[in-house]
């Protein structure tokens, strides 16, 4: 029996096999979860369909662009029809205008700022709102993905650092709001992993190198490392943990000068 046997886990953010969400999906499937995978658009749906045969059992998949609250509501209507309820929600999505992931922070546009907040931070609230009615009586768990650039200045991370700071605050406020209903909300602060989104951050390769050089464990983290921590948070092992940001970063975040 796996740690997630009989649990239904909804995961957002699989774009391809490098996505952190795909690492989490594989670990959750390995541990017996029934998966529901939300994808952004038709193109992502096609990519997802190619990955699905690698899972031990077929997931439910449904389209959902989180910038549209009606689509979020429709997504959870589909989940309601297909599943008895939801035990876990993984938010592994973010976006920013490429030109704002680098250059001078002062040049951040309102449009770019608003977009990164909407997709990368606000959507945790809207997806939670959609999932909560399906989580009643299930000691459910919500997990999102953040990065050290939320709390310290990381060159090039710019507008995304501000969105991640909001996401971490959303995690704490949601944890307090949903705790009385037995629902936990936590963030995983992952070290850098080479994904499509990460490659959009200027200087990303040097960030990977710095971790190998300086982090206590002297290595970069993998999708599976993150997936295993998400597993802990979604399983009963993590049932007293809420409102936290947990670092999966080879210890890089403990370093000073
Ligand atoms: N890769 C890293 O180094 C790293 C480190 C720490 C945290 N993170 C975070 O992990 C999460 C996953 O990113 P990743 O690195 O796996 O990159 P990725 O590009 O593989 O995944 C990003 C996902 O966001 C989805 N998305 C973007 N806009 C959306 C929208 N409007 N509606 C629905 N989905 C949308 C994309 O479809 C994609 O699946 C992000 O929150 C990212 O900030 C990444």
Strand order across the largest sheet: 3-2-1-4-5-6-7
| Relative helix content | 40-55%
Annotated CATH homologous superfamily: NAD(P)-binding Rossmann-like Domain
Which stretches of 5+ consecutive residues score pLDDT under 50?
none
Largest sheet: 7 strands, parallel
Ligands bound, unique:
nicotinamide-adenine-dinucleotide
Taking the alpha carbons of the first and last residues, their distance comes to 46 Å
Query: Per the principal axes of the C-alpha atoms, what is the gross shape?
Result: globular
Mean pLDDT: 97
Provide structural commentary.
- There is one protein chain.
- With 257 residues, this protein is α/β, with parallel strands linked by helices.
- It has a single domain (8-249), classed as Rossmann fold (3-Layer(aba) Sandwich).
- 41% of the residues lie in helices and 14% in strands.
- It contains eight helices and seven strands, in the order βαβαβαβαβαβαααβ.
- The longest helix is centred in the middle third of the chain and has 22 residues, at 110-131.
- The N and C termini lie far apart (46 Å).
- The model has no long low-confidence stretch (mean pLDDT 97).
- The chain binds nicotinamide-adenine-dinucleotide (NAD).
- Nicotinamide-adenine-dinucleotide (NAD) binds at residues 12-15, 19-21, 40, 44, 65-67, 92-95, 119, 145-147, 190, 192-193, 195-198.
